[in-house]
Amino acid sequence: MRYAMAIDTKKCVGCSDCVVACQTENHVPIGYCRDWVVEVMDGTYPQLEMEIRSERCNQCGNAPCVRCCPTGASHFEEGGLVLVTADKCIGCGACIQSCPYDARYSHPDGHVDKCTFCNHRVEVGGKPACVEACPTKCMYFGDLDDPGSDVSKVLKTRKSKTLIPEAGTEPYLYFLI
Amino acid sequence: MREEIIISGRMNPNIDPYLHIWHWQIPLYLFLGGLAAGILFFSAYNHVTGKEEKYRAASYISTLIVPLLLVFGLFSLFLDLKHKMYFWRLYTTIKLESPMSWGAWVLMLVTPLSFILAAINLKKVFPGWKWKYPLMQTLDDFFENYRRTIAWILVVAAPILGIYTGILFSAFNARPLWNTSILGPLFLVSGLSTGAAVNILFSKDHAERLAFTRIDLVLIGIELFLITHMFMGFMASTQVQIDSAKLFLGGPYTAQFWVLVVMLGLVIPAFLEILELKKFKIPAIVPAGLVLMGGLILRFILTNAGQMSRWLY
């Protein structure tokens, strides 16, 4: 089993509903967020191209945060999810330094926090809150090992990219282009 | 032209707009840890090679401050932790691929040894030293028998401690400025150099001072070579490392680095030390103080600039 997410940059309008859905679902403290929306503008007027991406933890297959964690608080879970065990985390900040996506932050309670792909929902057969909330249905989630899952199907038919694959992190957050 | 902005408004504290999760605590510890490693190495080396009476300051006097340096350093690291009450989790895990885990365990070995070494050196520094409690005297006598064993352990463990302070940074692929294996040797040599500076300060013996002035001069030379080599490596590397080098080559850290670290912390003390070896009278505090200050500022600048360097996407 290997969970992954694909986000359609052609359908995303940058409304930030995914951000709010996540904050509500995961009780993210005020002033923090686990996901965010990036707008990329390329070229000079009138030859402009725009890409909008909803970004979050890439749930890397070769996660530098898991490698550098001195206590094992950052770890891999079923389905390749990268999670943080709060009461093993000492808040040293090493994993925050190690993430080229800056996807982690220091929770006001002291431990490190980040996107979990809504593990608590996925475990019981649901979808992550951001995927559920997206009004343009531009996000696809599922198991890459299951050829019938939403994410497998869309990745088969569409071209996609990952962010900074050259950093060697093996990201599992795909962007359809 | 390419412009990337976060339109959902991400302002995670200490992450945006520039990563700054490590504040003064980390560079201060790196300095104190490197200095402690330097002092311990010289003392242990003198014991191993039988020169402990020739270089008394380096072998005995300087080691008295090492427990203080390490305790302050460890306390500083503790202050950096955001989930403080769980710090003991470091010692319920051994993670070979995590430099921080290595560091925690090396400190667990070196810190008690530094206390023992300082305790058995008290009678060498203060003739007629008497412990108040008989137990302490018994322990002192006991560990005195193992002086050479302790020296042999430290001659290996101290460089590991010194090198670890650099490896901690260089293991982060996500921060291109730190992601160079030169940082390990650079911090080790810088730590040894600050250790030599403290020995110069504490020594009353002219011959010992000159010996450590010579050693320091060589170490400064190596440091300058490593810094040059580091920038050569960056400029020949990928775009992210070229950009991170530019923080020091025209970017916001240019003046601080070249003036405070390279000029005041390395070149000028080296020049003063050469004058001293040529028999000019130079107050020891000046070159030694500059070396110590340079070592501290080097770590502050690398900590801050490293967090500013990043991948483009």
Please tell me about this protein's structure.
The complex is a heterodimer of chains A (177) and B (313). A 4-stranded mixed beta sheet of chain A has the order 8-1-10-9. A two-stranded antiparallel ribbon of chain A has the order 2-3. In chain A, strand 4 and strand 5 form a beta hairpin. Chain A starts with a strand and ends with a strand. Chain A has one domain: Alpha-Beta Plaits, CATH 3.30.70. By secondary structure, chain A is an alpha+beta fold. Chain B starts with a strand and ends in a 5-residue tail after the last helix. The model of chain B has no long low-confidence stretch (mean pLDDT 95). Chain B has one domain: Formate dehydrogenase/DMSO reductase fold. Chain B has 11 helices and 1 strand. Chain B is mostly helical. At the A-B interface, strand 2, helix 2, helix 3 and strand 6 of A face strand 1 and helix 4 of B. Strand 2 of chain A pairs antiparallel with strand 1 of chain B, so a sheet runs across the interface.
The class by helix and strand makeup of chain B works out as: mainly alpha
Name the CATH superfamily classification of chain B: Formate dehydrogenase/DMSO reductase domain
Oligomer: heterodimer
Beta content of chain A comes to 25-35%
User: Which strand order do you get reading across the main beta sheet of chain A?
Assistant: 8-1-10-9
Strand count of chain B? 1
Topology, pairings included?
The complex is a heterodimer of chains A (177) and B (313).
Chain A: E1 3-8, H1 17-25, E2 36-44, E3 47-55, H2 64-68, E4 74-77, E5 81-84, H3 94-98, E6 105-106, E7 112-113, H4 119-122, H5 129-133, E8 139-143, H6 150-157, E9 160-161, E10 173-176
Parallel strand pairs in A: 1-10
Antiparallel strand pairs in A: 1-8, 2-3, 4-5, 6-7, 9-10
Chain B: E1 2-6, H1 25-48, H2 56-61, H3 66-80, H4 99-125, H5 134-144, H6 147-170, H7 183-202, H8 206-235, H9 239-246, H10 254-277, H11 285-308
Helix pairs in contact in B: 1-3, 1-6, 1-7, 1-11, 3-4, 4-5, 4-6, 6-7, 7-8, 7-11, 8-10, 10-11
